[in-house]
């Protein structure tokens, strides 16, 4: 079995290395064959591991010792349990779909091999992250996925917006990592180990301890520090600012990295750390508030976006907020469940958006779409499925996971849960609205793409033959869409096993004072009753009315949105400005840092140290020498005179002393 | 071990440099090949130091001792322990790279150029293996001369200012050290034996005074804030090879001095002055990080980044825990690889464009994709990305610092943000984007010689990041011993 565990991450790594270093030699086809093969092997093995784990076999052991010092053993090792298995299957499955899709999407791109190399490298990193049995390797994977994300956002490196976005993404993530490293450091300092099992065991004994220097409660401090890391990676308010800009990257990676897998690393991490987070109500409170703020306020921005990818991006932010809120309510398995269903339906939405984008020759603005339904039936259908799932309507996957989260938050007694419940409910209405707005705006209504066919596209290399007639994408694009749409419908039906069947077993720990899921289990009687119950519950009607509003505004009365926008100009501006975060960050953090740097350099280094201390003393020596030099006139009578004076002084001195 | 390995490590490059000087610069290719042969021989003779090193003991190994100036009881006394052994290997390795890197770039006074680097390499091996204070001092001062010449002869337009600044700054510090050494000689009843000095009892006042004298010598070399301003100037004016050796090896001499002299000889003063040392280190990490961000000259930026990274070294030493000290030593070695690589990368571009200004570049990746890939790796290593060597030392020191005091760790961890900001922002402006101007459009990608040098460093950076075990394993016994020693008061 251990060999199998090794094959899972290293098959994609091998593919990445071959495609990356020998891309020219093996050619385009070679590059996609070798990487797809790697990921496919990985998926098959992940399936086998899943089977094995379901049989009750788990694994926790080292691969090699990375380093040893100060009584701390740093290891690279795997922890394979049910939580890991879910993540492995989701990651390899979505990754494989995206690999296949890329053949179509990137067909004309000169960086074809490089792209395949990167996404395979990403798959490797993400697998190492989820399979880790210790904080060191977790951080390795954490940073490695960040690196690949950086490389892929800036994949089209000649575009100024892309290289701005990737730097921003990396730096904002580094702010999160700053907290994450502090958390790891505290764990190492107080628990003397980075191994999950040891740390979790020690954590229970340190519940009442305080951090020595600061006097803060230890476990709470650790958890909040770790969660700051999750806020960076999973784009939670106020570190969410990098994710929308990351849409500058090619669409396949938006689906894989910035929706389905990497951004959920923070969610996974907190679920993995459930034995620690369960020890601190303060930390859970913090988590639930941040999560619900993200869920509501990011969804609001989505309703004013016109770029199809950005709508999906803000919807991703909002859904990540739901997952985070679930974590705060101690419904870890609900968060992971939503993570899984979301991975499928959001990948469908992104890849569907991508399919539209290539059909329209890299057009992303929905104002230049419309009526695509009849030209791209498969894309339309799959996007529709994704949108319904995203809106959380039964019996699609999103309904089960989202509904569970809302219920869990409702039942939670953590401070902040009341606010979170209201925010999430409001988010459901908005979610229904923006999901269907996307569908109606892009696929229904007037065919606006004809007017726009001659506009300047930023890819530059495509030739236009008059008004382009969009057509359905090739099978390498539609096949992944279909294969992802199936779980986007059906994966929700696993709710009985995953949430209430004790699927996660020991992988997730829930404290006795947070029995949210246990309560829900009592209420749960199966998938069909849940759907029937759902039909009478508030979230369903909210989502449905959101969808109805979208229909009204974009199909029934398409002239209305502009009127409304004019009426509520201030609100629209606030949303279009994304609450001003980007402006503020650019001015305050980016500008402020540079100003501090200039100040320290000019005032500190150049004026004080070099100007006054160094060159100043050099000049002082020079000046002194200039004065002293006058004494050395080279004339004998001055020397004789000074000798005589000196003699007198010495004699006087001697006489006075005696 | 029947032959004097350490002597070979010192004298093979130095003696090997003599025929180069005799040949003169007429026969350039012969000189280059000969220099390469000497450098490789110099590296090969150091390999037994690693292979035959006994990890079980903290005692000095490969000892050689012979009387030198008997009147003052000065000995030719060499030996290495787990702390110093790796620097000899690093130094000899870097020398090989510098010879290859200067192959085509240097066309004037080739023999003298190569000889200067070889001699300097031997002298620096001497510093890392001396166990006699006078021998150490002689090597320490002598190593200034070749570097002074390298900057002064093959340097940029204001090389004379930079060379003088470099020389005076460092000389001033080491003169104070000489006074301290003589004082210790008298206190030790006429012995310059470092190992004996480690056992020497000293009162608090002399300890502090000696610490200050040592500080003057070593802090300038590191360099620590506020005596760092010679470094950016020296780097900017130095030729690429000079910058590489300066950053990779010379900066380590100061830090090495702290662990070999200050900590074991003056444990009480070290503890007493540790808050100051920690404060200065954190200023180096944070203040210099900000300053690095706004540099317009790539070499200056990397020079400032070096100072910031060396702040981690001094920080690690003065938090007095094993993970901190080992982290600092690891950081020194890793910085040897990464700073060498960063300066070589700038050198590669400078050779083609004759500019170090970030503003003159943009879109280099379009013309030099292979180079861009290497530069990316090293930039990431410089930002401390895991699985590169840059992560290991930084991470260890941050862990040690958090263990020592949360706020110290907090300040140190700011480098995660600042380090990434200044490195990647520079990378973005230089490498990414559309081709910025006609000069960039004419760039050609790296030749096989440049490829070889960068590839060797890339392997080193990655290997150390993925498997640092051997690096820390070799230093455990010595660091343990050092810590026990520092914990014992000498009052």
Order of helices and strands of chain A: HHEEHHHHHHHHHHHHHHHHHHHHHHHHHH
**3D shape of chain A:** globular
Largest sheet: spatial strand order of chain B: 1-2
| Helical residues, percent of chain B | over 70%
What count of helical segments of chain B does DSSP give?
23
Count every beta strand of chain A, where a strand is a DSSP E run of 2 or more residues.
Answer: 2
Shape of chain B: globular
Backbone CA Rg of chain B: 21 Å
What's the SSE pattern of chain B? HHEEHHHHHHHHHHHHHHHHHHHHH
Uncertain spans of chain A? 454-466
> Sheet bearing the most strands of chain A, described?
2 strands, antiparallel
In what range is the share of β-strand residues of chain A? under 5%
Distance between the termini of chain B: 39 Å
Give me the number of helical elements of chain A. Answer: 28
Which pair of protein chains has the largest interface, and what are the residue counts? A-B, 54 and 62 residues
User: Helical amount among residues of chain A, as a percent range?
Assistant: over 70%
Q: What proportion of the residues of chain B form beta strands (DSSP E)?
A: under 5%
The strand order across the widest sheet of chain A is 1-2
Q: Decide which structural class fits the backbone of chain B.
A: mainly alpha
Mean pLDDT reading of chain B: 90
